[in-house]
Amino acid sequence: MRRLNLDLAERSYPILIDGGLLSRAEEILPFLRTPRIALVSNTTVAPLYMDGLVKALEKVGVGVTPIILPDGEAYKTWESLNQIYDVLLATRCDRSTTIVALGGGVIGDLAGFAAATYQRGVPFIQIPTTLLSQVDSSVGGKTGINHPRGKNMVGAFWQPKLVLADTDTLKTLPDRELSAGMAEVIKYGLIRDLPFLDWLEANMDGLLARDGELLAHAIERSCINKAEVVAADELETAREGGRALLNLGHTFGHAIETGMGYGEWLHGEAVAAGTMMAVELSRRLGWLCVADVERVRTLLQRAGLPVKGADLGAARYLELMSHDKKVIAGSLRLVLLKSLGDAVTHADASREDIVAAIEACCRA
Amino acid sequence: MRRLNLDLAERSYPILIDGGLLSRAEEILPFLRTPRIALVSNTTVAPLYMDGLVKALEKVGVGVTPIILPDGEAYKTWESLNQIYDVLLATRCDRSTTIVALGGGVIGDLAGFAAATYQRGVPFIQIPTTLLSQVDSSVGGKTGINHPRGKNMVGAFWQPKLVLADTDTLKTLPDRELSAGMAEVIKYGLIRDLPFLDWLEANMDGLLARDGELLAHAIERSCINKAEVVAADELETAREGGRALLNLGHTFGHAIETGMGYGEWLHGEAVAAGTMMAVELSRRLGWLCVADVERVRTLLQRAGLPVKGADLGAARYLELMSHDKKVIAGSLRLVLLKSLGDAVTHADASREDIVAAIEACCRA
Ligand SMILES: NC(=O)c1ccc[n+]([C@@H]2O[C@H](COP(=O)([O-])OP(=O)(O)OC[C@H]3O[C@@H](n4cnc5c(N)ncnc54)[C@H](O)[C@@H]3O)[C@@H](O)[C@H]2O)c1
Ligand SMILES: NC(=O)c1ccc[n+]([C@@H]2O[C@H](COP(=O)([O-])OP(=O)(O)OC[C@H]3O[C@@H](n4cnc5c(N)ncnc54)[C@H](O)[C@@H]3O)[C@@H](O)[C@H]2O)c1
Ligand SMILES: [Zn+2]
Ligand SMILES: [Zn+2]
């Protein structure tokens, strides 16, 4: 088993990565303040994994209050949050009850925000069951819900006591979701870890075949990379680089997500196409060569990801991108690659180059 | 002007106490990250104080987005919170916008929780306009809303950047609200500050006549006392004493509030009657003498507060008190006085003594 100890300024917690973790209650028990948890999941994940986990926990004397929400980003709302509060109060959960999230990023964000705010904060444990949530939501402590006027507009930073990434759960994950998570995995290689990028090229087929050992390595490298970036820019105050580097492909990608209507493209799919735009623009700035661009394209394609952007027209892209909350005071600050494995933030790309990069990737 | 620097582990911030602070925008300006605030108030306080504050701020170039909520504890809800989020998003407030609360504890708790959760946290400034909120909400960082199933069940800890307690605002506060706040002021004297208790006895008439200098001193001593208690028990983990001491009279008082239906008794009024019960019980344990009890009774009465409990019957009191969230595992842990100015937590009072103390204070 891989055991990562995240050592952020505020609080340190372990991320355990292995197959079969869900049935190993002894890994969870030492992290509970009292033998009482509220287990938040959804109607897709609960039938697959809840029973095993509950049985294992009850065997060691942990009382479990299940809270099962409908599945989908559309339910990452105040109403779902309120459903959680309702059950917590009705079953008299108190400040020592641990809230456990069993599911993808939606369940993690919801349950995490409930933990951050129920009686002003209760302990939280995350059991992410999608690749995306294992490599992204596990690190950084972001929790929250959507508001009708915008995604993730309401939330809090709330660190878990423990993260369990059970690679076995990825066996039931739809292919498209696995690929979407892989876009973020590849991102870590591209922005700061060239050896990992090489490794991903060598092992993509095994990863997609859901080889547990390979997945565990990919998750571990991803979490370490994200943790290093987050730790170096704890308060998101870095003016250059910093946490913003985690947004490679995201400003272009958000334009696709918004332009097509949320839900049409998965986030990871939009990030993949957006990454191609960032890479193409980096080539136009003279930082990457054609072979680099093709290397990225090939890897994303092998991962089952789109490399062609949605055909919104460059003008619409620019309009949507300028609404992105990461845009600082008018200038389009983009994450680009100086070379493969070395990302920078850059605010000086010309409008012409940006348009050309977008168009190249929509035609392709 | 009095300037208190609160130095809690997490973060330090100043509390300014003076008359006329509302028009001194130069005290606020240095604490804004950008010259942009969202000003949350209610339909009672806004007509009295918003105009002056907004004019002062606009004069020094601060843009103000006003958010005016209906008045009352009944509006400390998700719906009001959502109204705040709506305006923040509609007017494109971002992470650097400061949320300012202008009002009593209800507005402070609501606006503070909005600040804690809007885009995962924005800066917060508190301008409390009731005595209760100046002496209680100013210290400790508690924010939150009510849930249909319980008061203050959803919330977060979120420290303000600055607190402005303008004693002039207390001139328009209804007498009953001023007295209710005074119950908490007297509490600080009783639990840990005998010289302050003496001072309150000497100056109660001037305080009720709203003498600015006297009020400023009372607010300052109260905030210092609360800050010292909070700092010594930052994480609310003390098994004896600690933050729990701030609940003198509160367990009995909550029984009155709940038993009579919220809103019938003001919180401070219930605390006053509850304080008499705690004091009477302390006498039965041999810790206070009859003269001590009469001293407390006289001071509370002079402050315009009730010293007779609601006539619910002792059995109903005990039932309601056992539901209080401060009750630990069955045993009724009460805050009692070893002597005036010296509170302790005590879990060993007999049922008979508790019943007798309640009955003595309901008859009285
Ligand atoms: N907190 C953070 O740091 C962070 C980081 C990235 C993304 N997010 C958030 O996460 C969400 C996206 O996460 P996601 O991609 O995991 O989406 P998701 O939670 O919607 O999961 C995708 C789908 O897979 C299903 N599923 C989950 N695990 C499964 C399994 N083991 N087997 C079969 N099906 C399974 C889900 O029920 C859902 O239908 C977004 O709301 C995003 O904002 C948060
Ligand atoms: N966060 C904390 O640490 C903390 C501490 C104590 C109480 N609280 C919360 O505070 C609330 C009670 O606070 P409160 O007693 O200030 O009640 P409140 O906010 O309801 O104010 C009482 C009344 O006075 C009015 N008012 C306020 N300022 C006025 C002024 N200057 N002139 C005229 N009228 C004025 C209000 O509009 C209201 O009608 C409760 O919700 C309680 O849970 C929070
Ligand atoms: Zn992403
Ligand atoms: Zn109180």
UniProtKB/TrEMBL annotation, chains A, B:
Required co-factors: Co(2+); Zn(2+); NAD(+)
Keywords: Amino-acid biosynthesis, Aromatic amino acid biosynthesis, Cobalt, Cytoplasm, Lyase, Metal-binding, NAD, Nucleotide-binding, Zinc
GO MF term set: 3-dehydroquinate synthase activity; metal ion binding; nucleotide binding
All copies of domain 3-dehydroquinate synthase C-terminal, residue ranges: 181-327
Taxonomy, superkingdom: Bacteria
Positions annotated to bind Zn(2+): 184, 250, 267
Cofactor: how bound: Binds 1 divalent metal cation per subunit. Can use either Co(2+) or Zn(2+).
InterPro entries according to UniProt: Dehydroquinate_synthase (IPR050071), DHQ_synth_AroB (IPR016037), DHQ_synth_fam (IPR030963), DHQS/DOIS_N (IPR030960), DHQS_C (IPR056179)
Domain 3-dehydroquinate synthase N-terminal: 67-179
Record's keyword annotation contains Transferase: no
GO terms for cellular component: cytoplasm
Residues that, per the record, bind NAD(+): 71-76, 105-109, 129-130, 142, 151, 169-172
Recorded coiled-coil stretches: none
Catalytic activity: 7-phospho-2-dehydro-3-deoxy-D-arabino-heptonate = 3-dehydroquinate + phosphate
Localization per record: Cytoplasm
Signal peptide stretch: none
Gene3D superfamilies xref list: 3.40.50.1970, Dehydroquinate synthase-like - alpha domain
Enzyme Commission number(s): 4.2.3.4
Listed NCBIfam families: aroB
Function, as annotated: Catalyzes the conversion of 3-deoxy-D-arabino-heptulosonate 7-phosphate (DAHP) to dehydroquinate (DHQ).
Record HAMAP family: DHQ_synthase
Protein name (database record): 3-dehydroquinate synthase
Organism: Sulfuritalea hydrogenivorans sk43H
Native organism taxonomy: Bacteria, Pseudomonadati, Pseudomonadota, Betaproteobacteria, Nitrosomonadales
